[in-house]
Amino acid sequence: MSTAKTEAAAMQSNYHLDSQAECFEFCKNDGSAFFFPSPASGGFGCARGVASIPNDDSPLQPVSCDTYTWFGLTHSAGAIANGLAKRNLRERLSQLRLDSQKRCLRHLKACKVDASDSYECIDTTSELESCGGCINAEYGVSASGNATIGINCAELDGVALGAATCYNSACEAYACKAGYELVSGDCVLIA
């Protein structure tokens, strides 16, 4: 980071904002952000773009911290590209999740159908074979996403055939196979 006094005319635009953080957010995709305390507005003047900061190894000259003295913060092109790539990935994943939610009614999830490129809308709070989440993953969400994987309640160990249900996103058994006993909705092996 570097600090320098510069002229507002050398920058692309000039805005008055309430905080330095708003200025940094405004300039997040640029290589630099410039601001000055503005007693007149009670906030900060903010500008982005190219300014007269030396790009060689010459040391910056100290400046006074007077009213309307511009302060510039810059980062390398690599840091900008890395930050932009991460931000774009977060936005893309967020958009995929939103798109997935739009495919079905509000309370339903778009769940993949086996290995195909199709989906079905499922209520994972009560679906026996996708209880609590999509059994084959959520449609349009990458495997590294944080979607909840569902459980097939019909295939739980010790549960009698047809004796399980999905209620409020959790499997509950109401009868067990021989050698198991029912304990709080789960079939537990008898020792």
TrEMBL record:
<protein>
    <recommendedName>
        <fullName>Protein CPL1-like domain-containing protein</fullName>
    </recommendedName>
</protein>
<dbReference type="Pfam" id="PF21671">
    <property type="entry name" value="CPL1-like"/>
</dbReference>
<dbReference type="InterPro" id="IPR038955">
    <property type="entry name" value="PriA/CPL1_fungi"/>
</dbReference>
<dbReference type="InterPro" id="IPR048661">
    <property type="entry name" value="CPL1-like"/>
</dbReference>
<feature type="domain" description="Protein CPL1-like">
    <location>
        <begin position="119"/>
        <end position="183"/>
    </location>
</feature>
